[in-house]
Automatic annotation (TrEMBL), chain A:
The keyword Cell inner membrane does not apply. GO terms for molecular function: ATP binding; phosphoribosylformylglycinamidine synthase activity. Its main location: cytoplasm. Its EC number is 6.3.5.3. This is Phosphoribosylformylglycinamidine synthase subunit PurS. It comes from the Bacteria.
TrEMBL record, chain B:
Part of the phosphoribosylformylglycinamidine synthase complex involved in the purines biosynthetic pathway. Catalyzes the ATP-dependent conversion of formylglycinamide ribonucleotide (FGAR) and glutamine to yield formylglycinamidine ribonucleotide (FGAM) and glutamate. The FGAM synthase complex is composed of three subunits. PurQ produces an ammonia molecule by converting glutamine to glutamate. PurL transfers the ammonia molecule to FGAR to form FGAM in an ATP-dependent manner. PANTHER family: PHOSPHORIBOSYLFORMYLGLYCINAMIDINE SYNTHASE SUBUNIT PURQ. It comes from Leptospira noumeaensis. Part of the FGAM synthase complex composed of 1 PurL, 1 PurQ and 2 PurS subunits. The keyword ATP-binding applies. InterPro entries: Class_I_gatase-like (IPR029062), PRibForGlyAmidine_synth_PurQ (IPR010075). This is Phosphoribosylformylglycinamidine synthase subunit PurQ. Its EC number is 6.3.5.3, 3.5.1.2.
Amino acid sequence: MFVAKINVTLKESVLDPQGQTVLRTLHDQGKNLISDLRVGKYIEMKISASSQADAEISAKEICESLLVNQVIETYRLVVEKV
Amino acid sequence: MKVRVVTFPGSNCDKDVGSVLESEFGAKVDYTWYKESFSDTPDLVVLPGGFSFGDYLRCGAMAKFSNAMDSVVKYANQGGKVLGVCNGFQILTESGLLPGALLHNRTLKYICKDVDLIPVSENKIAKEIKGTLSIPIAHGEGAYFADSQTLERLEKNGQVVFRYKQNPNGSLNDIAGICNEAGNVLGMMPHPERAINPYTGKMDGKQILEVLLKK
């Protein structure tokens, strides 16, 4: 069994109003050390596969067909054995 | 005149648009549940507004994986006319029938109000529509986005159908509605079906549906 850990964020070129709103709130609190903030989502799924490589192929296919809209989003995928 | 309205779990404007097409245009309306397929060729297929699959993951993301959408894609690729309103527009972009994507409104607020729509004269559908139209919008994720090459292509090909007079949501190039290259698939965030009957106070949506129902 493997677990796929996926972080989805809006592409750098896409305005992230949620991230900007959170950043503004931090600045309002005087936390000016924070210069950039983007809000994304985290998805975790368990995969049955015979090898790490197969699990990665399956996870990548699922990311690109459903979990991530590559017009606006980018993702980071980590697959671990559990 | 035959129209198919596709209903997904969470669609809530299916009956609105269906009843308007029946009462105001005399259309014969069939409702297709998302699990069903169809192989006939109606005059128009409508993907209605609402919150398909609860808008979970991304608006319209899950609706694309359904028997009904397989039929819609086939029908559209054969030149059949498709209208996607609001969530229907989001489904059209997610399924690849239209380019781009719909993002959260720039203000992050859900916006529900009448907006002025300008039909873009370079577009085949819009050039048949006269004057600025006042049509309601009701959405949280209606800011049209596409990369710069796609935007340029849309503008060059005359695929922008409607622009907002005053951009309410941060849509690039003030885009409120676009069509595909062939001009048979139209997606728009405003709800023309909510501006048809004099009881609703507005009738500007009628022109849009009239153009789409023309043979």
